[in-house]
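Issue: ligand-bound run for calcium ion - logging full I/O for the record.

Environment: standard queue, default settings, no custom constraints.

Inputs:
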Amino acid sequence: MTESIILTPFCCRVVNHIFSRSLETDQVCPNGWAHHGHSCFHIIDTPTPKWKKARSMCQRLGGDLGKITTASENQFIYDLLRKQKTVTDYGVWLGLHRKKDQQFYWVDDTPLSSYTAWGQGEPNDSAAHGGEDCVHKIGEKRSWPFQPGQWNDVPCSLDGIVPSYNTPVVLCQKKIDMDVLSF
Ligand SMILES: [Ca+2]
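Outputs:
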């Protein structure tokens, strides 16, 4: 009896908060996620040396690493990245990786579409650190031979290669349920 008295007000406050927020703002993405196209994007503003760790961080939030298939999306993500407190040389991890067949796939297992934004001479799969099978999006110009916002393949672990403060932050994506958009 005592337990239900304590829990019920908390439960109702949370539900009412979520419901009133969606009605007031017509918001289709969770708080802190940005809406673009049929997706919600969120950048975890933490430099993260390992691509797999970055991916699990997104999965814990109910999403996955981000996928970019148009120039508009690429620009949107770049603008979102530049709004973060932390913008590193290595920018942000993307949900794109090279599999054993040597082709690149997004984390939803789709191959690269016709749109790509590789930097000049990339992907080069440099052998300097045992190959480059994971992809990030450049944050700052600095010493890069290509432009901010472009893509580059790098080793999936940058531990011992890049100072941890300069490693990519994490781009997460959730697909929006189309029923929500249409109602
Ligand atoms: Ca490369």
